[in-house]
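Internal ticket #5521
Category: modeling
Description: The requester needs a full-assembly model to guide mutagenesis choices. All entity lines are attached below as received. Residue total reported by intake: 348.
Assigned to: D.W.
Attached entities:
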Amino acid sequence: MKEEWRLLETENYTAAANMAIDRAVLVANSEGKVPPTVRFFTWKPPAISIGYFQSLKEEVDLDVCRKLGIDYVRRITGGGAVFHDEELTYSIVIPESHSQIPKNIIESYGRICGALMKGLKHLGIESKYAPINDIITGGKKISGNAQTRKAKTLLQHGTILMDLDVDKMFSLLKVPNEKIKDKLIVDVKQRVTSVKQILGEDIRFNEAAEAMKIGFEEEFNVELIDGSLTEEEIELAKKFERECFSTRDWNNRR
Amino acid sequence: MNSKSVYKVPNGKLLKIFLEFNEKNNSIESINITGDFFAYPEEAIETMEDELKNTLLKREILLEKINSIIKENNIEFIGLNAEGLTEGILMCLK
């Protein structure tokens, strides 16, 4: 019988709530209270997440965010700023010691990206892993990923770009030099793509999530069983949201 | 004196350093190491920033100090390394 992991689908949470849920699942899994968990989710309102090491005020134009009703949050993972709008976001939480997880961090990125690549294939898109943390198709980025390991537990989250508004994204992100902003926009349009751009049609969240679910099942030879957060995880997530991810202290700490 | 550098680490990520340094004795007063790199454990970056205080802004001394902090704290960088960090810090002086 195949090993069973938990599958969560949570649409329309805020940025702070989404990051709090990932951390709560990490804690619950590290304490052996829940099985390895894969979650697919979206953000409401759309949000920018920044990497743990980034400076919020250096990377994000907070005035424009406020004006456009865009949320923002600092992640517990490293990596760069991401505009979460038209995308499928996933997270996976699993013990570091799990037989399917390489000890080496880069190798484990590759393994988890393998699941996403299989998922993309089910949507009809051939792709490959581009170390450190991207997946590309036709030479363009379609997925970015970030991993942390805490309490002997791995959390990796990332995005599959479903559609992309580069101009809007750049209105929210600060660039080092305004003069080269137009060039940067052109660069990003040339370097980044989306499921919609490749397939020429909108793919619904449920359809994309189903494809990714199959990708994870195939890559790790497991069965993903529909589940929900435990009461304890919900309480813990609320605590993390209240005391960490929604606070100025956390988001402005760098 | 306050200074800032933006440095693309070769084969790595974009490092942005904010440095406050003492011009008289050429040493670090405070430093903020930011960017889209990865470091494990993440919190070790704060240890790195604390321990770099008062370090002389000389390449060999900085590199040695950074390497010893990495070793003592078992830090694993991805998209950044001791040489890149040293270079980013020294670029603040240019």
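Resolution: model delivered.
Comment from assignee: The longest strand of chain A covers residues 3-13.
Ticket closed.
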